[in-house]
Amino acid sequence: MEELLEILCELHPDVDFESCTTLIDDKVLDSFDIVTLVAEIDDKFSVAIPAGELVPENFNSAQAIYALIEKLENE
Amino acid sequence: MQFTSISFLAFAGLLLLIYYIVPKKLQWVILLIASYIFYLSAGLEYLFFIVFTTITTYIASRIIDSRLAKQKLYLAEHKEELSREEKKEYKDKIKKKNQIALVVYLVLNFGVLAVCKGLLIVPFNQMATNTVLGFLSLGLPLGISFYMFQSVGYVVDIHRGVVRAEKNFFKVTLFVSFFPQLVQGPISKFSQLAPQLFSEHSFDGKKLSYGLQRILWGFFKKLVIADRIAAAVGALKAPEYEGMGFLLLATFYAVQIYADFTGGIDVAIGLGEAFGIQMTENFVRPFFSKNIAEYWRRWHISLGEWMKDYIFYPLSVSQPMRKLSKFTYKNMGNLGKRIPVYIASIITWFATGIWHGFSPNFIVWGMLNCFFIVLSEELMPLYAKFHARFGLKDKKIYGLFEMARMFTLMNLIRISDLFPNVSLYFSKLLSLVTNPDISVLWDGRLLNLGLTGLDYGIIGFGILVMLTVSIIGEKKGSVRDLLSQKPAVLRYALIIALLIITLLVGSYGIGYNASNFIYNQF
Lengths: 75, 522
Fold this sequence. Notes:
heterodimer, A: mainly alpha, Non-ribosomal Peptide Synthetase Peptidyl Carrier Protein, Chain A, 4 helices, globular, B: mainly alpha, 2 domains, 21 helices
């Protein structure tokens, strides 16, 4: 989780990612951010997130993103 | 049958009556029959295309879905015996088979769309006239770009495991052909629209009233503003209008296409509401956007979402792009990280351009949008410093400047729609500097555009009404919710006033056929 928060903070240093649960709904993360994030996750966690998982529910909070990574790691 | 025709109003009225009288389990059947009556009223010759998409969509969705169901069952039954690698191998095998089915489906459908759009181009349509392709060159089948994209989204979502396939062929037929959105969108997702289409709806006075208000609002924008200003847009395209004349053309066209397209969508969404079906919104006051990315989140939202979900994302996260990303990051640092995203953006905007038509000006339109999106992304740190240095972000006046800047920029890009001759478009753009010709504003030429002083007055009034409603919507939320809290006398007075204005000053009357909605041609 720490590593994910680091990636997120690098993208938007001004956002409190630990508490925000509306990252997509409030347009904090746009489509460019999502793609950058997917590349970073691939790099740091060796997890390839498929396009079908790029839905708001999976990216609205750091917890949701982390849950997605864990799900894909266990597949 | 145009949305703005008397026959359509009679059709919709009768349909609403039948819809709420028949047993509720038959409501979707009524919508299906109505959708085909609506579609056939445009001409029998287009039937082949929509039926083709429906049948291929049904077959592809069932094949892909049944394989996924089989996979799930097999993995559940052999949960203990199979190793992780064996499970992965089995899943990959199913995935590969489904990918083949998906590619065949996409090639068939986009092939038909490409041939239909290609045959609109002059040398090809002449060449095809006496060949087997002749029947494809009848003109673009009504709504093909909308229903096909909606259908493709459905099949891809099944392939991704996001939704299950509908087993009833006729329900799939209704999803593909639902008439309010058939000719100009919004392009809906199956998960959002289908459950509403197939469920039972009790009569709800509030939904009907809201729906009718929205339809009236759409008619006002289309008939009072868009159809009236169309004459001036046509006249200002003439070669002699350069500089300020061209800027006026871009601005008038912005008003026309906004009133036309959002008006048509208001009618579509209002009709849906009257049937108890909430469609996805396609516009959220786009002219209040302060940057280009925000503009594209507010204008033609359903097409933008489709392009993002089914082209931009799959491309950006594909294996070749991930490899490229690693390579460029290693060799180019932080900029390298963004290169693959920009390549995916170029391809996505190219696709969005040709979605509008196989014409160089639409490709230029797409590339210009892409250029400014990438530019603004690259300049973002610079802007942030600039805003912080002068404390601009919180200043209202600066916000208005950003809106005006975006409005002008998007108008100048959008106007390329009207210039299939790309070099003429660029020479007109250049004339803003080389031949400003500001005197067009006062030398009387504006009264020779097919609009009288009264016409300008009506258009100005219409724009003022649109602007007021938009500002209220932006600041206070749903205008209809606010209206419903007002005393009934005031509410009805406003609605009746809008109706009377639309009837009196709209380009309308018995025997008169309002012009086509601009987006019907795509």
